[in-house]
UniProtKB/TrEMBL annotation:
It comes from the Bacteria. The keyword Repeat does not apply. Keywords: Membrane, Transmembrane, Transmembrane helix. It holds the Pfam family DUF998. The chain crosses the membrane at residues 12-32, 53-75, 81-98, 127-149, 186-205. This is DUF998 domain-containing protein.
Amino acid sequence: MGLTVEQVLDVGRAAGAAVAVAFVLVAAVDGWTRPGYRPARHPVSALALGPRGWLQTANFIVCGAGVMAGAAGLADESWPLSASIAVIGLALIASGVFPMDPMRGYPPGTPDATPTRYSRRHRWHDAAGAVVFLAIPVAETIAALTPAVGPLRSYSAVSAAASLTLFGVFGQAWERDSPRAGLWQRLAILVGWTWLAVIFIGVGARS
């Protein structure tokens, strides 16, 4: 006996929520236990470098695929919301496929400075990351304007403002190589990925 369409959509939303939570946990544990890695300074993307880099690469790709599955699970509720979240998933996959360049002391042995020139893969990674962090507040804003989201509309509006603010603060911290750049990025990730998990679970519970 096969699954109904609604059951398939439920599975997609559940997968989206699960990978959103797993992404944050994996990056946190890996960052705190990685030799030479400083979570407060280094970005999550730097975890895709070095001998254990495969773990964060997989984290990006699996999370991206799961977020796309979750987005598909929202298609019946709101196609603009579904499409905006799918963009986040695609950009996460691209972030895993195109890793950043070594810099700022990581991996260990790398000069503690910012390169004057970047590789093509790093530029693609930067572009993918910008899409992720800009698409999140866009999706949150769309959710805030979507009746199907119900009581989560207010939460989505607050999350949109917080995500956009934190992304801006992180961007400035990253440009000046602040010792707290990684911390600001993690706060942005925590807000955005928590919102994804809540939307996937909350909308699923209402449907």
